[in-house]
Amino acid sequence: LVLEWVQKFSTVFISHQWLGFTEPDHGNVHFPAICSACEAVCSTSGLSEDALYVWVDYISIPQSNAYLKQLSIASLPVYASVVKYFVVVAPKC
Q1: pLDDT at 14 over 90
Q2: Minimal CB count within 10 Å: which of 9, 12, 73, 93?
Q3: Three-state secondary-structure class, residue 20
Q4: pLDDT of 93 above 70
Q5: How far is CA 18 from CA 32, 39, 82, 83, 91, in A?
Q6: What is the pTM (predicted TM-score) of this model?
Q7: Helix ranges, 1-93 (H)
Q8: What is the mean pLDDT of the chain?
Q9: What local confidence, expressed as pLDDT, does residue 92 receive?
């Protein structure tokens, strides 16, 4: 199903460093960067913003069920390797 999805729909995998222990983006630092990155992907590839699907770990991985969460984390390499676009969002050092 994953391969069928990414062949049919343009999808970007967002990789980001969590900025807190309990929340991925407590200070709302990554969200604007993710939006800008997605806009850049659309602009450089000629996609409309409606045509880009976004995969972000926190919303794409079950958080409340530990078993499903671990299975999903184990599948990250599959998702990351088949999407058309891969973006890393990291804070400045």
Answers
A1: yes
A2: 93
A3: coil
A4: no
A5: 15, 22, 23, 21, 10
A6: 0.81
A7: 2-8, 30-45, 57-60, 66-74, 76-82
A8: 89
A9: 73
* Amino acid present at 50: D
Measured distance CA(87)–CA(93) in Å, rounded? 18
Name the percent of the chain lying above pLDDT 90.
49
CA distance 47 to 82: 18
With tokens 């050092």, the residue in question is 93
> CA–CA separation, 55 vs 12, rounded Å?
6
Q: Is the pLDDT of residue 27 over 90?
A: no
Rounded to an integer, what distance in angstroms lies between the CA atom of residue 40 and that of residue 90? Answer: 16
Q: Token pair of 89, please?
A: 């969002």
3-state secondary structure of 54: strand
Rounded CA separation 6/70 (Å): 23
